Amino acid sequence: MPLLVDRGSDPRIAKAADGCVEIGLVNNMPDTALEATERQFIALLEAASGDTRVRLRLFSMPGVPRSDRGQRHVEKFYRGLRELPDSGLDALIVTGTEPRAASLRNEPYWPWLAELIDWAEANTVSTVWSCLAAHAAVLHLDGIARHPLADKCFGVFDCAAAADHPLTATQGRVSVPHSRWNELREDELAAHGYHVLTRSPQVGVDMFARQGRSLFVFLQGHPEYDALSLLGEYRRDFARFLRGEREVCPNLPHGYFDTAATSVLAELRARALADRREALLAELPVAALEQGVRSRWRPAAERLYENWLRQVAAQKGHAAARPLAVVAGRPAAFVERRRRSDPAGFLTGPRDRRRVSART
After folding, report:
1. Identified catalytic residue from 22, 115, 222, 302
2. pTM, two decimal places
3. Is 192 part of the annotated catalytic residue set?
4. Interhelix angle for 68-77 vs 31-49, to 10°?
5. Which of the following is catalytic: 224, 233, 302, 306?
6. Positions of E strands within the chain
7. At what angle do helices 259-274 and 229-242 cross, to 10 degrees?
8. What whole-number distance in Å separates Cα of residue 249 and Cα of residue 293?
9. What values do phi and psi take at 305, rounded to 5?
10. pLDDT by residue (tens digit) across 115-159?
11. Rounded CA gap, 225 and 43, in Å?
12. Which of 96, 101, 254, 297 could form a disulfide with 106 if both were Cys (CB 3.0 to 4.6 A apart)?
């Protein structure tokens, strides 16, 4: 059975989805990547679902800056976070977005994201936190701050399994795209009980996890990326440099282009460093580059999400019978975080507020 994507406009989907594993995608990507990210996760989950029947629903988070066009798309196809408590979701995937503030706690969406983290901890079988969302989650849960990198971690990197875990079953070394300016350090994660699942010398920690009431999976990379994602990001960053919007000319993404393309782009980059002007952007051979790139990480990405969906499906029935009173062994801390991060009650309806009061 194919993946069912429920955009809230077809009542037949709800009937066909009876018995499915219910997944919510909270897509926080900026407008330039909003619809592409949506398509990437739909394609990846469809390929990974196999015999697991899955319904995917799309959710948006307040506070993420949107253009008029982006807001219209969200309003048409996405549900708001207020619908989460009654959604019956088994699991979530939460993406990051392009940061604008020096501190994540100063981002306009931070109160909503903090509340979402607590809700997911108490109410999902598992949640995947992608890239910046992973950084935000560990900051909120355990005060683990990310560290700026000297240069952007950008490209496709080979990562090795660091621990036996159902998520890494049948996987040895895997290729993973990364695109970030910050990192989480393994020693700080380990000190707070997180388990590193994959790593590499170039990127450090790739994937890590923590099992509480919910299995939280944290990805510093982007296994969902399609073949053209890194090319699009390189073109964007190169254009920003040529226009004077950033001071550093971007390096080529590691392990992504073939030898011929790398030679052409290195020559163009050298020219840009010697004579920075926006007209050089027209000389970027985009069409030829698109023909040459391949998503060699795709098989590993499909196996990862296949393993994750199987975990969610296996635990779905067990989780429904577990009490809400214990959340990762820290009920008091959870309730206090929830009170601090929910000033407007944007996730907690009346029924959910009674649950919080009962745990206090």
Report:
1. 222
2. 0.88
3. no
4. 30
5. 224
6. 4-6, 21-26, 54-60, 79-80, 91-94, 126-130, 147-161, 173-183, 195-200, 204-211, 215-219
7. 20
8. 21
9. -75, -25
10. 999 999 999 999 999 999 999 999 999 999 999 999 999 999 999
11. 10
12. 101
